[in-house]
């Protein structure tokens, strides 16, 4: 979670003024592009990062990226949630780059960050990935809080709905009723 974020990240995100100052510096070096309402990595920097990720995954930075994506997922009750989630979708797709999902020890990723990624995957039509994330979240919630906790039950419900939407009625029934 946020408590495990590196000091430099906590310092930059402590206030909007600090964040904007950091972004101005990065923009001054052409490392990011300033687009009204948000920032984006410059295309060359993005390519460098992807090239680096082919060789090595820094689990701490990967966890921080997961946390940042997860904390910004907009739920359906949020006005214009699809606008935010469409923008986050590009970041979430990077999780899958070079099969990183298989390389990562998901036991060290905060379960509160796994569930929103599953939700985002589901909303964007990545049903296999959503199922994987929901199953990881379910396992983590059951271990941490038990089978009757509301977070566990929300995950069971969404996993059941995911199966139902794919016409996998046996899996949906097993997920929801078999617990």
Q: What this model shows, in words?
A:
By secondary structure, this protein is mainly α. Helix content is 68%, strand content 4%. The chain has 10 helices and 2 strands, in the order ααββαααααααα. The chain has helices at 7-12, 16-28, 43-55, 59-72, 81-95, 100-103, 111-123, 127-145, 150-165, 169-177; strands spanning 32-35, 38-41. Strands 1-2 form a two-stranded antiparallel sheet. Helix 4 packs antiparallel against helix 5. The longest helix is centred in the last third of the chain and has 19 residues, at 127-145. It is elongated, with a radius of gyration of 18 Å. The chain starts with 6 loop residues before the first helix and ends with a helix. The mean pLDDT is 85.
What keyword list fits this structure?
single chain, 179 residues, two-stranded antiparallel ribbon, 4% strand, elongated
